[in-house]
Amino acid sequence: MAGFYRTGLAVLGATALVLTLAAPASADRTPPPDWSPAPCATGAITDVRPDVDGLNNPTLWISGWIQPCAGNELTDGFAIVRYYPEGGFRSRLVPYESLAAPTSFTFHVGGLRRVLLPTMTALCVAHSYDGRAACVGIDVGDPGEQPVVGPISTDDRRVLIGVRRGAVDPDGPTCGTCV
Keyword annotations for this protein (predicted)? Predict the structure, then answer.
């Protein structure tokens, strides 16, 4: 009879172990988001310089500054968002140099004209997926022409589309603190 109880306890223990291991992860084990954005920031794109890559495709160098609003100690940086007709793509994050002073940036931006796909229409310095501090509109032009770039509003129709993290960011940002 004692063997019967021991077997029953062993089965109950094994069942409890299996159920514990099979239980879904608790909410506090949720992976962290890929960006802890600042709820607001100010900034400007102060210089845009056209260039070309090794294949003579148009690229841009953009410079400027960004500063998160006070009380944003939890943010882990800002990004450049490239806008195409089908959506925006976020670059890797660049940490702020300081939360109390503007962070200068210089980025090299490629991919303005994509083969067999729509071309870039705008570019913004962003403090969150839907938070833009400064933007420029881009008219890539025809092959062999330099792009025409000019400031646009942060609520221009070209930038009011969904943004996702880019899978590959080969060109930039290359430097978050270059002068």
Answer: Signal
Give all strands of the β-sheet with 148-152 in edge-to-edge order. Answer: 148-152, 131-139, 122-128, 79-84, 87-90, 163-165
Question: Which tokens hold the place of 115?
Answer: 């083969």
Residues of the chain short of pLDDT 70, as ranges, are 1-33, 114-117, 166-179
Provide the mean pLDDT of the chain: 78
- Under DSSP, the state recorded for 29 is G
Count of beta carbons in the 10 Å neighbourhood of residue 52: 12
Q: What's the Cα-to-Cα distance from 172 to each of 34, 143, 152, rounded to whole Å? A: 18, 22, 21
Per-residue pLDDT at 115:
66
What is the domain partition of the chain in residue ranges? 42-159
Contact 36/50 with Cβ under 8 angstroms? no
Q: What share of the chain is helix, strand, coil (3-state, %, to 5)?
A: 15, 35, 45
Fold classification of 42-159 is: Immunoglobulin-like (2.60.40)
pTM, rounded to two decimals:
0.73
